[in-house]
Amino acid sequence: MESLIDRITIDPQICNGKPVVRGMRITVKTVLDFLAAGETIENLLKAYPYLQREDIYACIHYASLAVDMDKAIFKISA
Asked: What is residue 6's DSSP assignment?
């Protein structure tokens, strides 16, 4: 059984090595930005018919893992 995180790939040749969904040219950040702006999963699936519901869940899971890392990956200015 494929885990959600396996749906997220990183390839230097695709979107400058940013995390993307299943090797396609839609970044995790793009999906998360739409969700953060209030877009629904259903509307995302209509707008991007090649996405699957599990792809969106994988993006959320990826973000969850990123913020749970032992070391900060973002520089925060005070």
From this structure: G
Residue 21 lies in a domain: yes
**To which residue do tokens 């040219």 refer?**
25
User: Could you give the CA distance from residue 59 to residue 18 in angstroms, rounded to a whole number?
Assistant: 12
Would the pLDDT of 40 be above 80? yes
Establish if 78 belongs to a structural domain: no
Q: Which of 27, 30, 5, 33 has the alpha carbon at shortest distance from 14? A: 27
What's the number of domains the chain is made of? 1
Each residue's pLDDT tens digit, 55-75:
999 999 999 988 877 544 444
